[in-house]
């Protein structure tokens, strides 16, 4: 995903909103059915305020 936006979700007024990238990942995971999915937190996958 080098050079791409890796944001999977954003927060707006306490509401979590899934991004198109999340839905793409979800579809791939459901299709491929891996035993484990690891998401690197250094990838900055949550947009907005993380507090």
Describe this structure in words.
The longest helix has 13 residues, at 20-32. This protein has one helix at residues 20-32; strands at 9-12, 15-18, 46-47. The protein has 51 residues and is an alpha+beta fold. The chain contains one helix and three strands.
Distance between the termini: 26 Å
Strands in their spatial order, largest beta sheet:
2-1-3
What is the averaged pLDDT score? 83
Summed up, the helix count is 1
Helix content: 25-40%
Largest sheet: 3 strands, mixed
**Number of E-state strands:** 3
Radius of gyration: 12 Å
Helix-strand pattern, N to C?
Answer: EEHE
Beta-strand content: 15-25%
Provide a brief overview of the structure.
With 51 residues, the protein is α+β, with helices and mostly antiparallel strands. The chain has one helix spanning 20-32, and strands spanning 9-12, 15-18, 46-47.
